Amino acid sequence: MNDSPADAPELFTWEFATDPYPAYAWLREHSPVHRTALPSGVEAWLVTRYEDARQALADTRLSKNPAHHDEPAHAKGKTGIPGERKAELMTHLLNIDPPDHTRLRRLVSKAFTPRRVAEFAPRVQELTDHLIDNFIEEGSADLIHDFAFPLPIYAICDLLGVPREDQDDFRDWAGMMIRHGGGPRGGVARSVKKMRGYLAELIHRKRENPGEDLISGLIRASDHGEHLTENEAAAMAFILLFAGFETTVNLIGNGVYALLRNPEQRERLQRSLDAGESGLLETGIEELLRYDGPVELATWRFATEPLTLGGQRIAAGDPVLVVLAAADRDPERFTDPDTLDLARRDNQHLGYGHGIHYCLGAPLARLEGQAALATLLRRLPDLRLAVEPTDLRWRGGLIMRGLRTLPVEFGPGL
Ligand code: HEM
To answer: Region Disordered: what ranges (predicted)?
Structure first.
């Protein structure tokens, strides 16, 4: 049913990372369930239409467990598929299926509640202001390095209960993971190892001496008499850090960039914030996620049996990648999908996924995204790009897409 796949645009190039949307439009139209070789050499299916994507995300025949991957044994561990190496920290929500997933998710949901996140709002505001204070006198900044990058890491560390004096270590480890996520593995492996050692010790300490933080909450959480083991608690803390970090960096980076490129929308938001309204900020964050969300491809899924998706036969063991960023620009689902409309109402985007793996951290991401954008616009009302858009470099991984730097200028701020 595919048109000639020979005409398919080249994926995973530099141009693609800069602007993948024309390639996604081609795929949606000509080859909506598309077999391709990933940079690692692994063959996978890319799902780009909204309806197929939503269906795939909820399909129980698509497992998250990398053990279902049908790769020749010699390639195992070299594919870049997270979790393929059986590391302790990798037995986390994004790599497991029910019933284990159901049990772990229920336990973590008892500790990571919307109420805990809501109570955290003043701290997020304080962090946001503090980061802006650090550069406001300069008249210029790199909003990725100075703002979008540190905000989520300090926020999650605080929430988990990592003492302030240790948080810069986390910042360095996380920086290593972001910088080299798709590249040399050595530094990343070392950072993961250090993080694992640190988390194991912290969990041990919190067990002896619990507090009000999320790690203590994870240790305390019980369901029908069941608790998380120390290993499970460490894997959970790790996935909260890992899943909640680069995503939020890119939500802020891609979001600010989209606003700077759409001055009418930005002015509208600024006016509504000046008037003390929050409605446009709330719909606006959802729209920024749809328009240029941080997660390009939902994480891996593997067919546990042969199945048909969007008219395409998929064999047992085949990897399937749901391209959220392509689905969220599907004209069959969204009116004027390539237009940024902060007031968009009919906006059931897939930026946070769908189904049982729907983003657990969505309330925290919304809180951070809203605080970041509102505070930037309020305190730096004439914020502008300091370089031409063509000079910006994008980090296009397999999973995440975001700016490497976002140089901005501004007059005296508030
Ligand atoms: C899952 C997106 C922020 C924790 C997911 C998934 C997506 C996503 C698409 C589903 C992946 C899949 O089905 O394969 C985002 C975006 C964020 C964000 C766009 C920011 C804008 C966060 C934050 C946290 C977090 C701040 C926590 C602190 C998680 C966890 C899962 C998850 C634990 C796994 C849930 C499960 O498997 O049951 N996220 N996320 N995320 N996210 Fe987020």
So the answer is: 62-82
